[in-house]
Amino acid sequence: MQIELLCALIPLFPLIGFLINGIGFRRVPNGLAGTLATAAVLASFLTSIYLFGVFRAGDNQTIVATLFDWISVGDLHINFSFQIDQLSLLMLLVVTGVGTLIHLYSIGYMSHDEGFGKFMSFLNLFIFFMLLLVMGSNYVIMFIGWEGVGLCSYLLIGFWNKNTSYNNAARKAFVMNRIGDLGFLLGIFMLINTFGTVEYLDVFKQATSLEIGDKTILLITMLLFVGAMGKSAQIPLYTWLPDAMAGPTPVSALIHAATMVTAGIYMVVRSNVLYTLAPLTLEIIGFIAIATALLAASIGLLQNDIKKVLAYSTVSQLGYMFLGLSATAYTAGMFHVITHAFFKALLFLGAGSVIHAMSDEQDIRKMGGLRKALPVTFITFLIGTIAISGLPPFAGFFSKDEILAHVFEHNKLLWALGVVGSGLTSFYMFRLLFLTFFGEFRGTDEQRHHLHESPITMTAPLIVLAVLSAIGGLLNLPGSGWLGDFMAPLFEGSRQVSPAAFAESTIEHSTEYILMAVSAGVALFALIVAYVMYISRGAVPAPDTADRSLPQQVIYNKYYVDELYEAIIVRPIRGMGDALYSFGEGLIDGVVNGVAWLVRQSSAQLRLLQSGSIGFYVLAMVASIAAIFALRFFIRF
C-alpha cells in the first residue's frame, strides 16, 4: 500500500499545483503562485528520491503499483498502474529535479508577466503529463502522457498569444506532433492485435519467444518510431522544434532539456526488446539519426538568434541519442539523455539570463562583452558549452564518447560522421559563447545601461546545473560505470533474444583511447577555429540583407525545408480544403436555396386560388373527392 501511495503522490503534487494556480490564477498572488508551483514539483522530486531508496532496498526488483482497474473489453484488460524500475526512476529524478530548477528560475524570469499564475499552472500540468508518460506500466498510459505533453507544449509555446507568429509556432508544433502520434497509436493497436495486451512486462515476455527479423515486430517498431520522430524531432518531423523558441525561455528549457523531446528516446529504451528483435528498424533509425544530427548542426553554424542556435543543437543532440540506440547502446543513449538534461537546461536558462539583461534582445550580433556584466551567467554558460562540445572532463565528453565507441564497433561510416557532427557542435557553441560574452558590446546605449546580473532565483538554478554538467560524467565512467550496472536488468530480454548485441566489446583499450583522443581533438580543433575567427579576427556575422554565397544562403535559410513543406504539403492541402469548402458550400446552399425558391413560387401561385368565390370552392371540393375515389380505385386494381 505504501508503494501505491508513493507512486500516486508523485504526479498528484504537480496536478494539485496546476488546479490551484489554474483555477485561481487571477486571485492567487504571484509570489504564492510561484511558491506553490515550485513546491509541488520539489515535493515530487523528494518523493522520487525516497522511492529510489525503497527500490534499492528491495534489491532492485521491478514494482508494478496498480491504482485501479481501468478498461476491460473482451479479453483485453488495461489497468491504471505504474511501473517502478531502473528506467522510470532515472527519468523521474531527471524530470522532477531539472523541472524544479526550471520552476524556480521562472519565478524570477516571468514574475512581471500578467499571466504569471497561468504560466506556472501550465508548467505544473506539463510535469504531470510527463510523469504519467514515464511512470505508466503500459503503452496506453504512456500515450496519455504523450498526448498531454503535446497539449501543454501548444499552450506554453503560444503562451504570449497576442503575437500571431507565436500562435503559428504553437499550431505547427501541435500538428506535426499529431502526425507522429498517429504512427504511435497504430503501433499500439498492432501490439494489442499481436500480443493481446499493452502491459510492458507481458508484451516483452511474449516477444522473447519470437525470432529476430519478425515482420510484425518490424512494422510495430517502425510505427512506434514514427511517434518518436515527431516528439524527438527527427527528420522529417523536426521543423517544429526550432519554431518552439517562440515560447518563454523557461518553456524552451523544459521542452528541450529533460522532458518532451526525450520521450521518444525513453520509448525506444523502454521497448528495447522489440527493437533488438528488429535490426532493420535500428539500421533505419541510425541513418535517420546521423542525418538529423548533421543537418541540424550545419544549420546551427550560421544562426544568429541565441535560442535558435540552442534549438538546432537540441535536434542534433537528439540525433546522437538515437544514433547510440541504433547500435543497441541503450545505456549510452540514456546516459546522454541525462547529461544533456543538465547542460542543455543550463544553456537555455543561461540564454534566458542574457535575454533578460539585454531587454529581450536575442540577436547575438547585438551582444558582445557581456562576461563582465554577467559573471555568474558567463561562467555557468562556459561550463555548459564545454560540456555539450564533448571536451573532457565534463559530462558531455563521457556520454558522447560512449555513444561514438559503440557506433565505431557497429558501423565505421556512422562513427566518422558522428565525429564530424561533434566538431560542428563544438564550433557553433563556442561561436555563440565568443559572440555573446567576448569582444566589444554591440548593443544600444540603453541596453548597455540596463545590463545587470539576474536575480538569485535565476542564478541559483544556473549554478546547480553547472555543477551537474561538470560532474555528471561520473555516473558512468569508462570501464565500471554505476549507470551501466544499475540499468543492466532492463536489458535481460534483449540479451536473451540477441546475445551477440550485448557481447563484451572487442575494442582494445589502446583503440578506445585513440577514439577518445580523436573525438576530443576534433572538438578542440573546432574550438580553436572559432577562437581565431571570432576573438583573434573579431568577425561579426553579416546582417540578414548581406550577400552570401550559394552554400551559405542555403544553410542560412535552413535548407529551405520549411518552404519545401509549405509548397508540397501545406498549400496543396489548404487548396484542396478550400476547393472542397467551396464545392460543399455551393452544393448545400444551392439545395437549400432551391427548396426555399420552390416553396415561395408554389405558394405565390396557390394563393391565387383563394378568390372568394363560393362556386369555385364547391367545384374544387367535388373535383378533389372525385380524384380521391379515382385514386383509391386504381390502387385497388
TrEMBL record:
<dbReference type="GO" id="GO:0008137">
    <property type="term" value="F:NADH dehydrogenase (ubiquinone) activity"/>
</dbReference>
<protein>
    <submittedName>
        <fullName>NADH-quinone oxidoreductase subunit L</fullName>
    </submittedName>
</protein>
<dbReference type="Pfam" id="PF00662">
    <property type="entry name" value="Proton_antipo_N"/>
</dbReference>
<feature type="transmembrane region" description="Helical">
    <location>
        <begin position="182"/>
        <end position="201"/>
    </location>
</feature>
<dbReference type="GO" id="GO:0016020">
    <property type="term" value="C:membrane"/>
</dbReference>
<feature type="transmembrane region" description="Helical">
    <location>
        <begin position="251"/>
        <end position="269"/>
    </location>
</feature>
<keyword id="KW-0812">Transmembrane</keyword>
<dbReference type="Pfam" id="PF00361">
    <property type="entry name" value="Proton_antipo_M"/>
</dbReference>
<feature type="domain" description="NADH:quinone oxidoreductase/Mrp antiporter transmembrane">
    <location>
        <begin position="138"/>
        <end position="425"/>
    </location>
</feature>
<feature type="transmembrane region" description="Helical">
    <location>
        <begin position="337"/>
        <end position="355"/>
    </location>
</feature>
<feature type="transmembrane region" description="Helical">
    <location>
        <begin position="614"/>
        <end position="635"/>
    </location>
</feature>
<keyword id="KW-1133">Transmembrane helix</keyword>
<dbReference type="GO" id="GO:0042773">
    <property type="term" value="P:ATP synthesis coupled electron transport"/>
</dbReference>
<dbReference type="GO" id="GO:0003954">
    <property type="term" value="F:NADH dehydrogenase activity"/>
</dbReference>
<keyword id="KW-0472">Membrane</keyword>
<feature type="transmembrane region" description="Helical">
    <location>
        <begin position="376"/>
        <end position="395"/>
    </location>
</feature>
<dbReference type="GO" id="GO:0012505">
    <property type="term" value="C:endomembrane system"/>
</dbReference>
<dbReference type="InterPro" id="IPR003945">
    <property type="entry name" value="NU5C-like"/>
</dbReference>
<feature type="transmembrane region" description="Helical">
    <location>
        <begin position="31"/>
        <end position="55"/>
    </location>
</feature>
<feature type="transmembrane region" description="Helical">
    <location>
        <begin position="415"/>
        <end position="438"/>
    </location>
</feature>
<feature type="domain" description="NADH-Ubiquinone oxidoreductase (complex I) chain 5 N-terminal">
    <location>
        <begin position="70"/>
        <end position="120"/>
    </location>
</feature>
<feature type="transmembrane region" description="Helical">
    <location>
        <begin position="88"/>
        <end position="107"/>
    </location>
</feature>
<feature type="transmembrane region" description="Helical">
    <location>
        <begin position="143"/>
        <end position="161"/>
    </location>
</feature>
<feature type="transmembrane region" description="Helical">
    <location>
        <begin position="119"/>
        <end position="137"/>
    </location>
</feature>
<feature type="transmembrane region" description="Helical">
    <location>
        <begin position="216"/>
        <end position="239"/>
    </location>
</feature>
<dbReference type="InterPro" id="IPR001516">
    <property type="entry name" value="Proton_antipo_N"/>
</dbReference>
<feature type="transmembrane region" description="Helical">
    <location>
        <begin position="459"/>
        <end position="477"/>
    </location>
</feature>
<dbReference type="InterPro" id="IPR001750">
    <property type="entry name" value="ND/Mrp_TM"/>
</dbReference>
<feature type="transmembrane region" description="Helical">
    <location>
        <begin position="281"/>
        <end position="302"/>
    </location>
</feature>
<feature type="transmembrane region" description="Helical">
    <location>
        <begin position="309"/>
        <end position="331"/>
    </location>
</feature>
<feature type="transmembrane region" description="Helical">
    <location>
        <begin position="579"/>
        <end position="599"/>
    </location>
</feature>
<dbReference type="GO" id="GO:0015990">
    <property type="term" value="P:electron transport coupled proton transport"/>
</dbReference>
<feature type="transmembrane region" description="Helical">
    <location>
        <begin position="513"/>
        <end position="534"/>
    </location>
</feature>
<dbReference type="InterPro" id="IPR018393">
    <property type="entry name" value="NADHpl_OxRdtase_5_subgr"/>
</dbReference>
<feature type="transmembrane region" description="Helical">
    <location>
        <begin position="5"/>
        <end position="25"/>
    </location>
</feature>
